[in-house]
Design goal:
single chain; alpha+beta; Heat Shock Protein 90; 2 domains; five-stranded mixed sheet; 13 helices; EC 2.7.13.3; two-component regulatory system; histidine kinase; ATP-binding; transmembrane helix
């Protein structure tokens, strides 16, 4: 045994410090009890030495050594109880017996060992008490009934043995319960910390997702109209002096498209402002929802953007039926666009309607940006459980003016995100003829559900 190692005290807890005591006051308490026990045993050793015809110094020394064993009660409670049982015939060590039995019962010692040592102590005290009471009765010339001596011996032995054992069992059970509750509280605290970290991660993911959704909605609403306005402005500048009538028509188209872009932008901003309140009652929040409350304002904006998209199905936004008007706007700037529709035309869920419209719109916008003067074919196919769309353009026209439209590189990404969010398939890439093709297939049943 080292003097600085870790030991387990009577309470079953691991103690670190000087010897086996975890705290200084525990050491002071045990040393104080050992001193009292040694003094008691030394005083009782005088009488024992007289009865055994031994020098008093021997009895006092024996009592001091035996009583001092109480100092190791936390480290070796079994040893202390055995010493108290051994000196019971000498009628000494009452304090050691009481404290030793209590410590043994409260310690993490197998219950069969506690029962065995408590039984041995009870028998030893019962025998000594029986002999002493019978001697006292005989010396007092008192003639009680035959039941008197055994009954008094039983009462005294039980009084000296049972209370410390029962109290030690109670204290040990209480300590184990407190340790179990403390461990459970620590476990719950760790789980709450993990839940908080996970909620923070989910909130961060929600914020990123909502930012992407808002950016996609704003891009789809504004980019196409503004691109056409730039193309018309370039055409207006080219024909302003040569053909004033055509310049007037182009100026009118620019004004109409600007008003349409402002109307769609105002519609989205209006939905953003009129979205449902973000706040919730505190009673309705769970711990994880409370941790993710920081993402709630931005999530509300994202829900509003989605609501603006869903509003298309209620007549407040574009759908498949507006694709023809979209094609006419591209034709108005001089782009040759061929629209081909196959299958039975019918209405779909608002998500499908607007996604199909946005795919065609963004594909035409990319044509204006990257392939000015190219011929375009727009195909819409209405099938049993799905609707398909394809926008294919040829190479750029020879001598076609470039409007110098900037590209953010997010058009194809936004289309793919929209289509895959509804469980559809999106494919894009160059053609053998030097053009570009964008294809998308949307499942009608999944989106409608």
């Amino acid at each position: 045994m080292t003097t600085t190692g870790a030991h387990q005290d009577a309470a079953g807890t691991v103690a670190r410090g000087w010897w086996w005591w975890g705290r200084r006051r525990s050491a002071v308490l045990d040393v104080g009890l050992a001193v009292l026990s040694a003094l008691e045993c030394a005083a009782e050793g005088v009488g024992f030495a007289g009865e055994a015809s031994l020098p008093e110094a021997v009895g006092v020394l024996f009592g001091l050594v035996a009583g001092a064993a109480l100092v190791v009660r936390r480290r070796w409670p079994v040893f202390v109880v055995l010493v108290s049982i051994a000196i019971t015939p000498a009628e000494m060590g009452y304090l050691m017996s009481l404290v030793g039995l209590y410590t043994l019962a409260a310690a993490e010692v197998p219950r069969r060992i506690v029962a065995a040592l408590a039984g041995m102590s009870l028998v030893a005290v019962l025998i000594v008490t029986f002999v002493r009471v019978r001697q006292d009765v005989a010396a007092a010339d008192f003639q009680p009934g035959p039941w008197y001596v055994p009954l008094v011996a039983v009462f005294l032995s039980l009084g000296l043995t049972a209370p410390p054992v029962l109290f030690g069992l109670y204290i040990g059970a209480r300590r184990r319960l407190m340790e179990s509750l403390r461990e459970r509280a620590d476990s719950l605290e760790q789980e709450l910390s993990l839940l908080a970290d996970r909620a923070e991660q989910q909130a961060q993911m929600a914020r990123t997702e909502e930012r992407t959704r808002i950016a996609r909605e704003m891009h789809d609403v504004v980019a196409h109209r503004v691109s056409l306005m730039v193309v018309h402005a370039a055409a207006l500048q080219a024909v302003a002096l040569k053909d004033p009538q055509k310049a007037v028509r182009n100026a009118a188209l620019v004004g109409d498209m600007g008003r349409q872009a402002l109307a769609e932008l105002r519609q989205m901003l209006g939905v953003l402002r009129s979205d449902e309140p973000v706040g919730r009652s505190v009673e309705a929040r769970s711990a994880a929802q409370a941790e993710s409350a920081a993402a709630e304002p931005l999530a509300a904006v994202g829900r509003a953007a989605a609501a603006a998209a869903r509003a298309a199905g209620d007549g407040a936004g574009p759908g498949i039926g507006d694709v023809e008007e979209l094609v006419e706007q591209s034709r108005a700037v001089g782009t040759v666009v061929d629209l081909r529709v196959t299958g039975e035309v019918r209405s779909y869920a608002s998500e499908v309607e607007q996604t199909a419209y946005r795919v065609v719109q963004e594909a035409l916008t990319n044509v204006h940006k990257h392939a000015p003067g190219a011929e375009v074919v727009v195909r819409l196919a209405h099938r049993g459980g799905e609707v398909a769309m394809q926008v294919e353009n040829g190479p750029s026209g020879v001598g076609a003016p470039d409007a110098g439209l900037p590209s953010g590189g997010n058009g194809l990404v936004g289309m793919r995100e929209r289509v895959t969010a509804l469980g559809g398939v999106f494919v894009s890439g160059p053609t053998d003829a030097g053009g570009f093709r964008v294809s998308a297939v949307l499942p009608v049943g999944t989106a409608a559900a």
